[in-house]
Amino acid sequence: MRLGAADAAELRVAVAANFHPLFEHLAVEFERQSGVEVRIASGASGALFTQIVHGAPYDLFLSADATRPQRLEQMGLTVPGSRTTYAIGVLAFWDRQLPASELRLRQWHGRLAIANPRLAPYGAAAESVLRRLGMTERLKGKLLRGNSVSQAYQFIDSGNVPGGLVALSLLKARGVPPAQYWPVPTSWYDSLEQQGVILKRTREPEAARALMTFLLQQERRLAQAGYALPGAVAQR
Fold first, then answer.
1. Is 11 a domain residue?
2. Please, which pLDDT band fits residue 1 given cuts at 50, 70 and 90?
3. How much is the pTM?
4. Which domain holds residue 166?
């Protein structure tokens, strides 16, 4: 898989906040195997999407949803046929004070951290869960919305908020004790189908394709990190 010295490349990858911790490790392995340098920019998928639309010089976009890569494709900003599902995200309820459970979430009355649903797919999923459980009115004025799911995680980790709805992958990456979190049933929110796409402005299409292929070979690592596997999910 190693590219020749004459083909040595640098890739700029825009990575959704939930995938950043795992991707950092995977990028190091890819660099070692391929000789390609990987530079990472991480943030909420919505913010990264806006940067791309306005010309940010990324080669690949690893989103936390399928919608934004699909929109970029419709705008003619992607390499045709490159849009691929690389993981299925899982939302989890994190309670720093008591063992987390469905009952604990249903009875929650305090402040709760979630990602901004306008920017982050995990925030939209969290909002859907709260609506499903009839908690929206009860928590009015008590929701602390982070610009990304990573910031929502930080609100809880810092002790500023006692609990929240965040990415399971972040909890696993940071070593949060399993008793403190409860994976929310995936039927409670729209699928967090995470898609990647190669951007048409890339000057390194071969290296970009190699990185996407490498990611799709990491099923075991993805499962260990708290993701469901794409499996038979069809590309939309």
1. yes
2. low
3. 0.93
4. 90-188
